[in-house]
Amino acid sequence: MKLPAVALSLTATLTTLFVASTASPAVAAPADCSYGVSGYTAASLCVSGTGEHRVKVLQRHYMYGDPILLEGPWKPVGETSSVNLTAHRTERVWIETR
To answer: Does the keyword Signal apply (predicted)?
Structure first.
């Protein structure tokens, strides 16, 4: 099963990102975070605050329905965390911060 193609490049996707999570100004955790999916890559970027973030993806095996959890590497604010997707169905993409 093929995932739908995304017309935007990963760079363009990350610049027009969906806001996935933000922290209040009093919190020093990563903030102004967003994620995007392009082709077989998911990525996250946090542009303010301190700490680290990573992109997480839940996919579902197309034949057996088993969950497949993918996690990008922890990255500091200002750097992109990315993970390669499989050909299985993507159910959810989110950002984890610490």
So the answer is: yes
